[in-house]
Write a structure and sequence with these properties.
about 30% helix, binds adenosine-5'-triphosphate, binds magnesium ion, alpha/beta, seven-stranded mixed β-sheet, single chain
């Protein structure tokens, strides 16, 4: 059977014989008590996976491995910020998680209570996540780059009983004052104030006492050697809340269950990422994002693999840092974002090729459209398959992907390949009619969503139904992304629905224009938006970032590249060469902010922006 046939067979089964398929996958994890049913879908669109089953994530991610692989490294922590490296075995992880769980119990945290984790990329962050799920508490990790108000709104939404933070963190060699930011955030909180546990790393942050704060080091000392039995919770019990990136507006608190989440993680590691127990996974993301939750923490540990936790920037001390870690630790699978690769592309392939990367089998990229040129460039530099995978905080694991574990199908540059198991994908046009091959439309998923996907929006079932399931005649899950598939069933994401540009009746995905611009050898990155035009409906304005040592082309030359590749209709009216683009902290171009500025409007509140100076860059360009 070819890889293609093996995939088709499994995929069809995951849709046509859904329950049997997931029943089989569920055997990859330990159940304390078997589930009553595989799926309860009596109340659409709420899918309850494996109800009645009792299990525990921490037991599956830690305890289960101690007997078999207690001495194996679970976590390799590398910090280029505080210049430290640490290996933590599964046995040591078990010890630390138990002590932390014991401390949580002492602080009065119980099943269903929320714990907000606002920590830098340090092993204690993973320990805290696991300690929460061990006792049935629900964690909500907030990305360390968020400032006071973003933090306050998440505290208000999740109303945690406890916040775990550090005195500070480091980012690019500069101090990030975690505790002072939390202190400021707490002042703006409207719900009952949570208790605060502080990990003092001895960083040079301004002194800032918080009333009633608990010092972690002295508190945990009282729990040395303590063991806490895992609390067996129902499969449908919430394990965590994680807010979406906020690229398009108010973040949504994605609630994830316990059993379905684990089954999804474990089988995705096996089939998609192709990582076996004992192997090494490196996801160059942050635990504050879904990629970090899924592929730094849960999937590798549930698999009994070794995970690399990296604190620092991908280009510091130099752009070769990640590749030196791949060589040193024998990384088998690397996961990062197109943005990180485009940054490397700007600096040159020699940073990659000078290292011995023989352990690396596959690289995965997600988070933003991966343009064909970057896909080709990095594939040639690495000489291994590079897999684009498309998913969302909401789903927790890929909607569209190729399958390294199953045996890769042909890879097409620019395409995240095909639907993942359990995702019954559909494309709709503006009237809601279902589309066939080669026509652009909104990407939807026919529910029930597979295991691992969000169970609801935290505390707001109505918003969940309204936001995701109310845009089509039939009840379908909306991804809010614009896509197309070719005659071979390969998907291409064209951008977000909201960003679609309508020029004289032609609907263009932002991706199409950006993709064309990126084929020019001098172009590192591009962003396109459609500004209002009385005559044509919309006009295209493009912003281009050049390669570091490129001979600058003229705007006209770049506009013509687009005209040649897509047609005159897509030729940008204005094209600006800029030093950088406004992005979220997770590396996504904030097109709505660029559009607002290009139309002379105020971009509004952007709590997730990486560097607000980039807004001025756009302002100056369009002046
Ligand atoms: P918010 O929903 O709060 O506006 P967000 O959509 O950026 O923020 P995430 O869940 O982090 O939050 O990102 C998911 C989105 O990222 C997808 O819906 C899609 O637009 C984009 N995306 C992710 N992976 C890919 C990919 N491989 N190709 C193209 N786009 C991708
Ligand atoms: Mg989104």
């Amino acid at each position: 059977m070819s890889n293609q046939e093996a995939y088709e067979k499994m995929y069809r089964r995951s849709i046509d014989d859904r329950e049997a398929f997931w029943d089989e996958q569920a055997q990859l994890i330990h159940w304390h008590k078997p589930y009553d049913r595989v799926l309860d879908y009596d109340d659409p669109p709420f899918a309850k996976w494996f109800p009645g089953g009792l299990t525990n994530i921490c037991y599956n991610a830690v305890d289960r491995h101690v007997a078999e692989r207690g001495d194996q490294t679970a976590i390799i922590w590398v910090s280029t910020e505080v210049d430290k490296r640490e290996h933590m075995s599964y046995r040591e992880l078990y010890r630390q998680v138990n002590e932390m769980a014991s401390l949580l119990l002492e602080l009065g945290i119980g099943q269903g209570d929320r714990v907000l984790i606002y920590l830098p990329m340090m092993p204690e962050a993973i320990v805290a996540m696991l300690a929460c799920v061990r006792i049935g508490a629900i964690h909500s990790v907030v990305f360390g780059g968020f400032a006071a108000l973003a933090l306050a709104s998440r505290i208000d939404d999740a109303s945690p009983k406890l916040v775990i933070t550090a005195d500070g963190g480091m980012r690019g060699g500069k101090i990030a004052p975690y505790k002072p930011l939390l202190s400021e955030g707490l002042a703006a909180v409207t719900v009952e104030k949570p208790a605060v546990l502080v990990l003092n790393r001895g960083l040079d942050t301004p002194p800032c006492p918080i009333e009633g704060e608990i010092d972690f080091a002295s508190a945990i000392a009282r729990h040395a050697g303590k063991e806490v039995p895992p609390v067996w919770v129902d499969s449908t019990h919430p394990s965590y809340i994680l807010y979406t990136s906020g690229t398009t507006g108010r973040p949504k608190g994605v609630q994830r269950d316990t059993g379905g989440h684990m089954v999804a993680m474990r089988q995705s590691m096996k089939h998609i990422y192709g990582v076996e127990p004992g192997e090494v996974m490196f996801a160059g993301s942050d635990i504050g994002w879904v990629v970090g939750h899924s592929y730094i923490v849960y999937a590798p540990l549930l698999t009994g693999a070794t995970t690399i936790l990296y604190e620092g920037l991908p280009i510091r001390p130099d752009p070769g840092i990640w590749w030196s870690l791949v060589a040193e630790y024998g990384v088998n699978c690397l996961f990062t974002s197109p943005t990180a690769i485009r940054l490397l592309k700007k600096t040159g392939a020699e940073w990659i090729t000078r290292h011995d990367l023989s352990s690396l089998r596959t690289m995965f990229l997600a988070g933003e459209p991966l343009d064909k040129e970057t896909h080709r460039w990095v594939t040639e530099a690495l000489r291994i398959p590079v897999v684009d995978n498309y998913w969302q905080t909401e789903t927790g694991w890929p909607i569209l992907t190729n399958f390294a574990g199953l045996g890769l199908m042909e890879l097409k540059f620019g395409s995240p390949t095909k639907p993942s198991f359990g995702y019954d994908t559909v494309l709709l046009d503006e009237t809601g009619a279902e589309l066939g091959a080669n026509t652009k439309g909104s990407l939807m998923v026919r529910p029930p969503l597979p295991p691992g996907c969000m169970s609801t929006i935290w505390g707001d079932d109505a918003r969940f139904v309204k936001t995701y399931f109310s845009s089509a005649k039939e009840m379908l899950y909306a991804t809010f992304d614009y896509a197309i598939f070719d005659d071979d069933g390969y998907y291409f994401i064209m951008g977000r629905n909201d960003d679609v540009i309508n020029v004289a009746g032609h609907r263009l995905g932002t991706r199409e224009v950006e993709e064309a611009l990126c084929t020019h050898p001098a172009v590192a990155e591009a962003a396109a938006v459609g500004i209002q035009d009385q005559l044509k409906g919309q006009e295209i304005v493009a912003f281009v970032v050049l390669m570091t040592n490129a001979v600058p082309p003229t705007p006209e030359e770049l506009k013509n590249v687009v005209a040649r590749q897509i047609g005159g209709i897509a030729k940008p009216k204005f094209l600006h060469i800029v030093p950088g683009l406004p992005k979220t902290r997770s590396g996504k171009v904030i097109r709505r902010a660029i559009l607002a500025i290009a139309e002379g409007r105020d971009p509004g509140d952007l709590p997730t922006i990486e560097d607000a100076k980039m807004l001025d860059v756009i302002r100056n360009a369009v002046k």
